[in-house]
């Protein structure tokens, strides 16, 4: 079937429909039917590419990647501009580079479809196998902003529960199956209603199956319940921390004052707090640990405020800070009072936190002098933190006023106040900003809570921060544990183990202090047990019938040739 006389015009129009559909399927719209519309356009394009040459398919793949870069993720251009501080011409070149090398989903799938399914006949075995390859290419795709096909249908509360089995990538597999049957329905329509029903009934059965089982997952019983965690999410919205502000004392003073004031105000309004989350970048350019290596970036006020809140009020604080270790600079997530319990960020944002290709081409630093200089860590670990026996207890206003001069001298705070009794333990899976986009980084059977500290200030107040915030909430569903997020400029929120908001999310570009009571309820999930190997095993099971059939056909042909 050919809808357009010009092949490239047809592919370009489908690419636009695809990108628009993905845009509306993601946060803040979460209109999951748009996800199926996007995939319908995508698979239509793949079907119309049959019998085309490889170079034509590669060219069309670039059209789809560019549509994503311009329409769905149009914020990439200004974000890279703010990261690098470069002019818009160079920024546009970087965006072109991003579209070619960091939006590989269309290219990988179109090539795989061309190699293994030159002509798609819509049999059940073919649809199953093609969907498996679709999901595998999704997991392997190289991207700057790591989104998944599964994010496009996660707005449906029942369908997203399938992430418990095989992560967000399994949602992409399900979306592919249902969309291919929708495409089959479309291609069969003109042949009459009887073949239409006969060929499409499996699709309707599968749709009913996925929704019904998703509902059962939604109702799946809890296996642990540790009560509620009284949590404060501090969103200071201090603005972008450009390199020129590194030695700006006024900027640093404003940052620490906001952290302290919002934390204290939150404790006054909500007594007996257990935990405070400070967003990534809340105190930029500084370290809170007084070590010889951190001497050049250590902030006594940063350290003092943390020590005061921990010792005087008894609250536990999770925060992000800079940390030098063995001559390398890391972004770290830490806990106070356990200042020596550290998680080092492993996945870094290109240009913002490190400069791609700098090791091989050091001169690139001259072009992008403001690009980040962090090193990636290699070890994954959870954080064991302790909570006060009775929650935080804020002193009266007079005592608090008398203690203000101590905030810049942590040693005096330690002399004056002893540590509070802490008898409750909590296991945290820490994720810093970008890392929460990757399912494999959040897996942990032993975790009670997934914590994401993020800095989306560079995106300004557009769709980027909303898309980022919406995508990462699936980590709660995959692991069956609640998820809490504190973002510097928004969006901050917490969801339960089904991905449902516990309290309304904060706005963007606002100064807010959100209080949430997080139910520490866990449920067992297959993904937290089997991790990514389980997903790949399920996809191999989907591929097996098709390739066994192809192998048998090949063997039969060889036997027939020998016979004659």
Which characteristics define this entry?
single chain; 564 residues; alpha/beta; six-stranded mixed β-sheet; 11 strands
In words, what does this structure look like?
The protein has 564 residues and is an alpha/beta fold. 47% of the residues lie in helices and 14% in strands. The chain has a six-stranded mixed beta sheet. A five-stranded mixed beta sheet has the order 6-7-8-9-10, with no helix packed on it. The chain is globular. The two termini are 38 Å apart. The model has no long low-confidence stretch (mean pLDDT 89).
Topology:
Blueprint: H1 7-25, H2 32-48, H3 54-72, H4 76-84, H5 88-101, H6 105-116, H7 124-140, H8 163-188, H9 193-218, E1 224-235, H10 249-269, E2 275-278, H11 300-313, E3 316-325, E4 328-336, E5 342-344, H12 364-367, E6 383-388, H13 397-403, H14 410-416, E7 422-432, E8 449-454, H15 463-472, H16 474-479, E9 483-487, E10 493-495, E11 512-522, H17 526-563
Parallel strand pairs: 1-2, 2-3, 7-8, 8-9
Antiparallel strand pairs: 1-11, 3-4, 4-5, 6-7, 9-10
Helix pairs in contact: 1-2, 1-3, 2-8, 3-5, 3-6, 4-5, 6-7, 7-8, 7-17, 8-9, 8-17, 10-11, 11-14
Largest sheet: 6 strands, mixed
Mean pLDDT: 89
Helix-strand makeup class: alpha/beta
Shape: globular
Structural Rg? 26 Å
Estimate the helix proportion, in percent. 40-55%
Distance between the termini: 38 Å
Compose a concise summary of this entry.
The chain has 564 residues and is an alpha/beta fold.
């Amino acid at each position: 079937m050919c809808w357009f006389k010009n092949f490239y015009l047809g592919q370009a129009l489908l690419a636009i429909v695809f990108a628009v559909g993905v845009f509306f399927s993601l946060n803040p719209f979460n209109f999951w039917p748009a996800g199926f519309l996007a995939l319908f356009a995508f698979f239509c394009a793949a079907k119309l590419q049959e019998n085309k040459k490889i170079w034509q398919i590669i060219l069309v793949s670039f059209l789809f990647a560019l549509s994503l870069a311009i329409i769905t993720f149009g914020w990439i251009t200004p974000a890279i501009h703010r990261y690098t501080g470069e002019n818009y011409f160079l920024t546009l070149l970087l965006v072109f580079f991003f579209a070619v090398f960091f939006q590989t989903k269309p290219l990988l799938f179109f090539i795989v479809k061309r190699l293994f399914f030159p002509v798609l006949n819509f049999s059940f075995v073919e649809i199953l196998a093609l969907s498996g390859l679709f999901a595998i290419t999704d997991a392997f795709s190289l991207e700057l902003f790591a989104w998944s096909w599964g994010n496009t249908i996660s707005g449906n509360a029942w369908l997203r529960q399938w992430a418990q089995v095989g992560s967000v990538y399994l949602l992409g597999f399900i979306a592919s199956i249902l969309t291919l049957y929708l495409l089959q329905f479309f291609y069969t329509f003109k042949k009459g209603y009887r073949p239409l029903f006969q060929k499409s009934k499996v699709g309707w059965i599968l749709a009913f199956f996925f929704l019904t089982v998703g509902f059962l997952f939604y109702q799946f019983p809890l296996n642990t319940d540790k009560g509620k965690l009284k949590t404060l999410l501090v969103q200071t919205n201090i603005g972008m921390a450009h390199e020129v502000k590194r030695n700006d004392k006024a900027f640093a003073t404003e940052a620490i004052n906001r952290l302290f004031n919002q934390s204290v105000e939150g404790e006054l309004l909500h007594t007996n707090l257990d935990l405070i989350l400070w967003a990534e970048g809340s105190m930029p350019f500084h370290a809170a640990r007084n070590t010889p290596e951190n001497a050049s970036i250590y902030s006594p006020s940063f350290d003092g405020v943390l020590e005061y809140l921990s010792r005087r009020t008894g609250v536990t604080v999770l925060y992000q800070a800079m940390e030098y270790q063995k001559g390398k600079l890391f972004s770290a997530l830490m806990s106070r009072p356990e200042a020596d319990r550290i998680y080092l960020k492993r996945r870094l944002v290109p240009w913002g936190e490190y400069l791609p290709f700098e090791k091989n081409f050091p001169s690139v630093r001259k072009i992008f002098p403001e690009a980040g200089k962090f090193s990636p860590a290699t070890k994954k670990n959870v954080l064991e933190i302790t909570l006060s026996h009775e929650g935080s207890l804020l002193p009266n206003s007079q005592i608090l006023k008398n203690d203000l001069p101590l905030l810049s001298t942590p040693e005096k705070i330690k002399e004056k106040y002893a540590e509070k009794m802490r008898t409750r333990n909590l296991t945290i899976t820490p994720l810093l900003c970008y890392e929460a986009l990757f399912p494999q980084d959040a897996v942990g059977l032993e975790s009670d809570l997934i914590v994401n500290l993020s800095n989306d200030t560079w995106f300004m107040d557009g769709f980027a921060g909303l898309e980022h915030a919406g995508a990462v909430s699936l980590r709660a569903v995959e692991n069956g544990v609640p998820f809490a997020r504190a973002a510097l400029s928004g969006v901050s929120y917490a969801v339960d183990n089904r991905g449902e908001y516990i309290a309304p999310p904060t706005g963007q570009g606002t100064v807010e202090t959100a209080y949430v009571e997080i139910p520490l309820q866990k449920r067992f999930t297959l993904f937290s047990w089997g991790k990514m190997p389980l997903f790949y095993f399920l996809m191999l099971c989907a591929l097996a019938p098709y390739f066994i059939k192809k192998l048998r056909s090949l063997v039969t042909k060889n036997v027939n040739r020998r016979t004659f």
